[in-house]
Amino acid sequence: MFHRPLVPLLLSFAGGIVFSHSLLPPCARADLFLFFAISLSLLAACILPTRLTCCALSLTFFLTGILLGRPAIESSLLALSKTHEKLTLEGVLLESPKMLPGEMARVRVHVSGVIDGKHIQGVSEDIRLTIYGHTPGLKTGVRIRFPARVRPFRNFENPGRYDYVSAMKSKGLSCTAYVSDGRRVVPMGRGDLPFHLNAVEALRKPLRHLFEQQLDPRNSALYKALILGERQWITPDLRDLFNRTGLGHILAVSGLHIGLVALISFFFFKTVLLRAHGLILRVDVRKMTALMTCIPVIGYTLLAGFQISSQRAMIMGLAFLGSFVLGREKEVWSTLALAGLIILFLNPDAMFSISFQLSFVAVAGILLLTPFFLSLLPNRQGEGDTKTHVVRRILLYFAGLMAVTVSATLFLLPITALYFHRISLVSVPANMTVVPILAFWVIPSGLLCAVTLPFSTAISSMFLHFGTWGLDLMMAVATFWADIPWASIRVIIPTLFEISLFYALLLSLFFLKKTRWARVGLVAVLILIGTDVGYWVHWVNFKQTLRVTFLDVGKGNAALVEFPGGKRMIIDGGGFSSGRFDVGEMVVAPYLWRSKIMKVDYLVLSHPQSDHMNGLRFIATHFDPKEFWFSGDIVDTPSFQELLRIVETKGIRSSIAS
Q1: Of 308, 416, 421, 351, which is closest to residue 166 (Cα–Cα)?
Q2: 273, 286 contact by CB (below 8 A)
């Protein structure tokens, strides 16, 4: 693989971004030094012997990654918020508000000015705005003025925590702002969206209205996610169903959806062109087909809101189509590396986004492992009548789909465990049964609905309702897999070292018959895995020291007590009064899983207030405690009553601590 120069260049560039992000603070002088060093290394690449050119280019890309990946200077809004308790901001809504429980809404706003008396100080930043109560009816493209408290994004600083700050930064958001009362948000008419966003909204608005008018809330939410890329309408229960079955990836318009559109469009255009016999003699049909396929790929990306995840998928799709045009379609690794370089050059922060990592790791797994699994199939050549040939082709299609699904699922296992703390045991059959319905029924019908809507609402509605039948079937199949009791399991969170061991083991097994060094590597990896397992088993279950860890859960309290011999106690679980954010699931449990703890023995509640109590519900449900101790205070709140129901249902012994 390393004789393909784009692959090491991508690795060097990505390594520079990670190095810069992790170790280097913002500094203008450092930028000048890096620019000078890049110039020297590029000059060296031009004059050094051929054998050293690759090394010099790798250094150039590494330094470029450091330069482009350097932390940005603090946002202007955050700097201004230090001198003002509140800021009066003016900006344009970039998306429809996501409605939250308790008359709350969350929306992305492009802030263009800060109002100070009669003066407007110009800024240009995207922020996440949360509106509490009396949410006004706002739509995409509306200009608003509002007083808000501006705050930086904040992580819960516990090992194993979700890096919320990097996730928001990768989405292009600089900070978060809060409006205490929606009546203070003043609509000011139509705002000035960028040209591409205006075009996108012109396409999406009538289609969104059609979904809302003709579909029930569930199907409307699903079609908005699948076609328009608007996931804010997906309910938590619906999202959990997809996560349990390993189908969560289909809710985001990304590589799968763009790839399906490209595949269907490619075969459609190829079939049409092959019927034009005169054209076949004058042009290369494959290259012409690839060029034509770029149009629906770009169009679908625009229709899906031109969001960051769909932009990355579009770049990957266009890169692979470009390889057909250039006659280099067999250089799949180089094409993947080129797509990665383009994406990271345009947005270095994409390196730290979950969608980027999942997309590229999945594609790498498919490219690496699928040929191996396909080689295990029986000889695909054979003779027989037409009926036998058709059956064989159908079986080979499903065998290929299984090979792709298993390859992606297997290669993504440690990434899935790292970010989602859950592995679906029905992921392979669920994807094999749901993805074909999605690919050949639901998405094509939705796109035909979008294409025909400007010409005929009746025809568009016909395609929409036809697609809804497929959507109902898809959901019935997904629900079947989700209802299996063991559909998914919670797992421990691997460390970076353990993730490296997993891929080293996988690659050692893959190359076992190809090189003798793989055998040495396999033995070394197995020894390291055994050592790692032994260390954690001793640390979790047999250490003879008392350890108390106070967790960062925001305003409330939570502590983990680890007794000599392996007994564990959770004292309080943190929480928020709104109940929208489950501290137990999102903060306390990830720390336990990161510490390789899957079970606690005692739950202790000091007093039944939300900032001490709400996080215990998830722990009581998923960590099998034996005893629950509390003060004896009983309050008639839904959260406390739910906690008591969980304790009773799980058979946890309840005691009043004196």
Answers
A1: 351
A2: no
Give per-residue pLDDT as tens, 448-475: 999 899 899 999 999 999 999 999 999 9
CATH number of 547-656: 3.60.15.10
Structure confidence by residue, pLDDT tens digits, 247-289? 988 888 777 788 888 888 888 888 888 887 777 767 788 888 9
What does the alpha-carbon distance between residue 546 and residue 361 come to, in Å, rounded to a whole number?
40
Q: Quick one: fold of 76-193?
A: OB fold (Dihydrolipoamide Acetyltransferase, E2P) (2.40.50)
- Statement: the pTM of the whole predicted model exceeds 0.90: no
Residue ranges per structural domain of the chain: 6-68, 76-193, 221-347+421-490, 496-541, 547-656
- Strand, coil or helix: what is 65? helix
Q: Give CA–CA dist 245/424, Å, rounded.
A: 6
User: Beta 98-100 vs 104-116: how paired, if at all?
Assistant: antiparallel
Apex CA 77: angle with CA 27 and CA 87, to 5°? 155
CB 185 within 8 A of CB 147: no
- What phi and psi, each to the nearest 5 degrees, are found at residue 526? -65, -40
- Whole-number Å distance between alpha carbons of 139 and 137: 7
Nearest to 419 by CA among 368, 355, 482, 363: 355
So what's the pLDDT on residue 525? 93
